[in-house]
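Exercise 7 asks you to align residues with C-alpha cells for two separate proteins.
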Amino acid sequence: MEHAFSMIAVMLAAGAVTMAVTPAMIRLLRSHAILDIPNERSSHELPVPRGGGLSVLAVYAAANVALLGLGWVRLDATWLALSIPLLALLALGFFDDRSSLRVSTRLLVQGGAAAWAVWLGDLALPALQFPLLPAVDLGFWGPVFSWLWLVGFTNVFNFMDGINGLAGFQAVLAALALAAFTAAGGDAGFAWLAMAMAGCSLGFLRHNFPRARIFLGDAGSLPLGFFLAFGVLHASCVVPRPQLFVLTLLVVWPFFFDGVFTLLGRVLRRQRLGDAHRDHLYQLLVRAGCSHTGVTAGYAVAMLACAALAVAMGLGSGGRAAAGFYAVVLLSLACAGLILRFHAQRGAIAAREAGVRAVGEALADLRAAARAAQKIGVPAPGDARVAGAEPADRK
C-alpha cells in the first residue's frame, strides 16, 4: 500500500505529541477545577480532571495542518463535512464538561453537526443490505438514516466512555480499521486523517489506562464518537456496496452492540430512556466485581477481533462475509446472556452476604446491650425477671 510507512509515522508522531502535551492539560484542568466528581453512578472514587479531549483534538488539528501542507489531505467537501462538526462538538463537550448543558441544547448542536455532514459530505446511504438478504433501497430515507446513525452513535460512544481506557481503545482500533477500509477503496485522504486520530487516541491512553489521571470528558467522547460514525458512513460510500455499511459497522461493534442491547433492555423493562443508569454490559461487569483493567482488556480483545474481521470481510467475498457477520451477532448475544447471568449470580451472593452480615451485626448489638444492662443491674433483653422481684421458686 502506497504511503503505508508514512501513515504509520504520522500515527506514531501524533501519539507521541499527545502523550507529551496531556500532562499540561491535566494541570490546566485542575487549576480551573474542571473535575469529574464521583457520584453514585461513577466508577471512580476520587475527583479526576475531565476534558482530555482538548489535548486529543488539539494535536489532531495540528496534524491536519501538517497533512494539508504536505498535500496528503485536500481541503475539499469531505474535509469540511468532518472538521466543522468536530469543532462544534468539541466546543459543546467542553462547555458541558464545565457546567452541564440541557439535553435539548446538546441534541440541537449534534443534530446540526450531523445534518451538515450528511449534506456536504454526501453521506446519504442509498441502500442497506444484510448478508444473504435482499438489499433495501432507502431512497428518501437515506439521508434520514445517515443522520440518525451519526447522532445515535455519537451518543452511544459518549455513554460507553465510563471506565478507564474503554473509549480510547475503541477509538484507536476502529480508526485503524477505517484507515484500511478507505485506503483500499482509493480515498487516501480520509485514511491519513484516521491514522492521525488513531495516534492521538493512542497517546491519550498513556494517561487514561490502566490508571486514569484524566478523562476524555464530553470534549473528547463526542468528537471521537462522531469521527468514527462519520468514518463508517464514509467508508461505505467510498466503495458503494449495499452490505458494506453493515460490515463496516463491525469496526465499532462492541460499542454499538452494548449500546443497542442496553437500550432495548430498558425499553422492554419500561424504564425511561433519559434517566441516568448503570445498565450497560461493561457496567454490569464492574458492578459484579470485575476490575476496570480486566473489563477494558476483554473489550479491547473483542474490538481488535471485530476490527480485523470487518476489514477482512469488507474486502473479501460475500459468502465469508455472511458467515462472519452472523457469527459475530450470535457470539455477542451469547456473551450478553453470560454477562447478565454472571451479574445476577454475583448480586445474589452479595445479597446473601449482606444478609448474613446484617444478622451478625444485630446479634453483636444485642450482646453488647445485654452486657451493658448487666453492668447497671437492668435485666438483659429477653430476661423473664423483673427488677426488684424474687424468682417464683423462692416465694
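Second protein for Exercise 7:
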Amino acid sequence: MNRKKSLPLRKLAISSVIAFVTIVGGVGGGGWYWWKNATAPIQGDAPSSEALLQVNIPDGATANEIGQILAESGLIRSVTAWKIWTRWKGLSDSSGGFHAGTYQLSPQASLPDIAQTLWTGQVQQVSFTVPEGWSQKQMAAYFEDLDWFTAQEFLEATQTIPRDRYPWLPEEIPFLEGFLFPDTYQISVDQRTPEAVIGVMLDHFQGSALPVYQNRSGFEDLSLNDWVTLASIVEKEAVVANERARIAGVFWNRLRDNITLGSDPTIEYGLGITQTPDQPLTYAQVETPSPYNTYINAGLTPTPIASPGLASLKATVAPEKTDFLYFVARYDGTHVFSRTLTEHLRAQARIRDQQDAQQNSTNL
C-alpha cells in the first residue's frame, strides 16, 4: 500500500503559519496586502531625525507580552502580525529567542526589523573609559559624575574580591586596586552597576594582562600582586612611552640594592594628594609616615597605587638593563636619569632653577 510521504514537522508548521496569514488577511492578494500594512513602520516616511524610543523588555516576558509592550509603545501596528512573525521565527530558528534588556527602537523600523533586533539581543549600549594610571577612587568619582551609581557604592564593591570567578586574584589584597584594567568599554545600559562594571574590567585583565604575567621570561619569584604593584608605580612615573622600560629598570636596580624606591606618586597616593609643578611635595609630606611612603619604607607598597596599562605591565617584566639608580622629572614628561646620588642632586637643582626662572618670567 502506497502512503503519502509526510512533510517534516517544521515545514508543516510553517505552512500552517502561511495559511493563517491568508485566512486572517483574506483570500488571494488581500492576505499579502494585510501583512504588508500590518508590518509596516508606524511612522513610515517620518523625518530621519525622529527620536528613538527606549523600551525595556523584562526578564521572562513571553512573545505575546513583548508584542503588547511594543504596541503600547507605538512601535508596531498589529499584535496579531507580531504573533504570526514570532510563531514563524520560533519554528524557523528554534534555538533562538527574544532577549531581555533595554533597547532603543525607531518608529520608522518595520515589525520584522524590530523583532530581529530583539531576537539578536541588540540592546542599548553605553560606553565608559578608564585611562591608564587611574586609581579606584578616580574611577569612583568618574562613575558618580556619569550618574551611574555613587562613588561610595563603587568603592565598597571593590572590597569584595570575587575569587569564585577569578581564582587568580591574590589572596592578600584588601581591594581591587590595580586589577581593574584601563580601557574603553561598551556595556548594556542594564549593566550600569558597580559589580557589572568591575566584572568587565576584571575580564579584560584576565584576557589581556594575565597572559603577560603567565608567559614572562625570568622573574620566577615575582608574585602577581608585586608585579601589578610595581607596574602601577611605573605607570604613574612614566609619561613618555620610551622611558617605561628604563624607569622599570631603575626600580629593579633599587630593589636589588635595597634602596628605597623614593617614588613621589606613592606619597601622593598614601596622603590622598596630587602635586603640581607649582605645588610640589613638601619635605614634611615626604617625611610623613605611611605604608605607602617609599622614601621611608624599603620595598614595594602594600597594594598597587593605580591601574597600570599593558605597556607598563610589560615593561615591568622586560626592564631596560641599565646602571641608573635615580631619575627626576623635568615637568615636560621626560626625566633626567643618574647613576650616582651626586649626579641626581645636581639634576634636581638644575630642574628646580629652571622652574623658578620660568615662574619669575611669568610674573614679570
